[in-house]
Amino acid sequence: MAFSLPSVASLNGPLTAQSLAVLKEYLPSPVPVLGAIDRRIPMPLKQLAAEAPLNRLFARAIADGEFDDFENRRVRLEITGGQPGITIGFWAGRLRVVDGPGEATIRGSLAAFRTLAERRQDPDQLFFQRRLVIEGDTELGLGLKNLLDSLEWNFSPRKLLFPRT
């Protein structure tokens, strides 16, 4: 007995959207699981996984000196609830993943960070709606937000992880 798979076009219909909305509402948050995984990953592996893609994504801006004001500074990006999170610094012309707190922390939901990365909404709106929050050195956090907003970049997980495809 053979089963036929639905066409890709049929997966973009209203039933799919409604099903996804129900799943999002009633499934438990993935944050605790992501936090548990995050705590078990050694820092060198996090650095290996994150630094090269970040530096590729912002290579032009780094070469143009756009990140120079952030030399020796640290910003933590954190999912609401404290875990998982990543602290990023800028040293010697490279973005680095570092262990420890940031001078500024930008905190929000996975959905808010994804919206920010994909540039689907103005970053100021995300902050005014309190979907993203800056704590600590707010001047540093706002400086980074303004820099990211001013740059021409295109977030694509596929391009970041597989730059030659």
TrEMBL record:
<dbReference type="Pfam" id="PF02036">
    <property type="entry name" value="SCP2"/>
</dbReference>
<dbReference type="InterPro" id="IPR016830">
    <property type="entry name" value="UbiT"/>
</dbReference>
<comment type="similarity">
    <text>Belongs to the UbiT family.</text>
</comment>
<dbReference type="GO" id="GO:0006744">
    <property type="term" value="P:ubiquinone biosynthetic process"/>
</dbReference>
<keyword id="KW-0831">Ubiquinone biosynthesis</keyword>
<dbReference type="InterPro" id="IPR036527">
    <property type="entry name" value="SCP2_sterol-bd_dom_sf"/>
</dbReference>
<dbReference type="InterPro" id="IPR003033">
    <property type="entry name" value="SCP2_sterol-bd_dom"/>
</dbReference>
<feature type="domain" description="SCP2">
    <location>
        <begin position="54"/>
        <end position="149"/>
    </location>
</feature>
<comment type="pathway">
    <text>Cofactor biosynthesis; ubiquinone biosynthesis.</text>
</comment>
<protein>
    <recommendedName>
        <fullName>Ubiquinone biosynthesis accessory factor UbiT</fullName>
    </recommendedName>
</protein>
<comment type="function">
    <text>Required for O(2)-independent ubiquinone (coenzyme Q) biosynthesis. Likely functions as an accessory factor.</text>
</comment>
